[in-house]
Amino acid sequence: MRAAIVGRFRHVLKKTGLTEQQFRILRALHVRGTLEPRELCAICHISSPSLSGVLARMEGVGLVQRERHPDDQRRQHVSLSRRAQQMFADVSEDMEAVYQELEAALGPAFVDQMYAMCDTVLEVLKGPEGEAPAEDDA
């Protein structure tokens, strides 16, 4: 089911050159602002080792910026670059159109039920530290 739903969004991502994981990171940073890597892992459901590599690649192409925490040099803050902010704005309209197509095909009530069921599954599957299982880099 996940593959069928994500497949609807692939053509939008393909235009940007972003992977699914990269888009989830961009979306999280756009919505929540500057975050620490551990927060991105939890929000985006990406394992820490995978996130490390993805962030390095994103930083290398100028999509994110990583800075050391001023009070604790062991911690990092990750934020979107201006380029990534513009990229997110450009792709958001296309993504919203896909969401609207799905809702039109399935019906708003079904979509609401599906979201509620997914929330329930994630809640049940939370790990010992209250985090949903991470998705490894494929």
UniProtKB/TrEMBL annotation:
GO terms for molecular function: DNA binding; DNA-binding transcription factor activity. Keywords: DNA-binding, Transcription, Transcription regulation. Residues 1-123 form the HTH marR-type domain. SMART domains: HTH_MARR. One of its GO terms (biological process) is response to stress. This is Homoprotocatechuate degradation regulator HpaR. It comes from Pseudacidovorax intermedius. The lineage of its organism: Bacteria, Pseudomonadati, Pseudomonadota, Betaproteobacteria, Burkholderiales.
